Amino acid sequence: MTVIPAERIILGIDPGTTVMGYGVLRVANGKPEMVAMGIIDMRKIDGHYLKLKHIHQRVTGILESFLPDELAIEAPFFGKNVQSMLKLGRAQGVAIAAALIKDIPITEYAPLKIKMAITGNGMASKEQVADMLKRILKIPADEMPTFMDATDGLAAAYCHFLQSGRPVLTKGYNGWKDFIAKNPSRIKK
């Protein structure tokens, strides 16, 4: 059983090649609090490799500023444009590498899982995710960012908080497969 510390910092990242969002969550005695959220803006940087360099420098700076205990990062979704996917994967990889250098544990979450954890709807819009985070974490309206990439980064951190904060079941079932395995006589063939 994993012991969850009384206080920890979770950095969430929403990878991007034009705008990358991040959010920092402080969890003290099981209660989450937003510490910071923002974006890494690469709109004025020409060249994919220069963008990757900028991502590495900025993520490293964020890691050094907030000293997170864990990183939660959104997995790239599979789109139709292979070149866009490749570039997004590289951006994600650079952010992951920056955390690995600092020995920070990393957990990757699918966009659908993050949206489901925050709103209860895996198809929720960025606006719905942002609004739920505002309510859950009691973020003042004037602190809500212009770019939803920042709230998407915070959503990754909050999703990780929810997932890692769940107690391990010692009784009961961990889904239908577990139920079937423990109750073979109750299954009609």
Layout: helices, strands, pairs:
Blueprint: E1 7-14, E2 19-28, E3 31-41, H1 48-66, E4 70-74, H2 82-101, E5 106-109, H3 111-119, H4 126-136, H5 148-164, H6 176-182
Parallel strand pairs: 1-4, 4-5
Antiparallel strand pairs: 1-2, 2-3
Summary keywords:
alpha/beta, Nucleotidyltransferase, domain 5, 189 residues, 44% helix, globular
CATH architecture: 2-Layer Sandwich
What is the number of domains? Answer: 1
List the total number of helices: 6
The CATH superfamily turns out to be: Ribonuclease H-like superfamily/Ribonuclease H
Q: Could you give the order of the helices and strands? A: EEEHEHEHHHH
Shape: globular
Sheet with the most strands: spatial strand order: 3-2-1-4-5
Taking all residues together, what is the mean pLDDT? 89
Unreliable stretches (pLDDT < 50, length at least 5) are: 167-171
How much is the radius of gyration in Å? 18 Å
Distance between the termini: 36 Å
CATH class: Alpha Beta
Query: How is the CATH topology named?
Result: Nucleotidyltransferase, domain 5
Structure classification: alpha/beta
Number of strands: 5
Estimate the helix proportion, in percent. 40-55%
* Largest beta-sheet characterization: 5 strands, mixed
Strand content: 15-25%
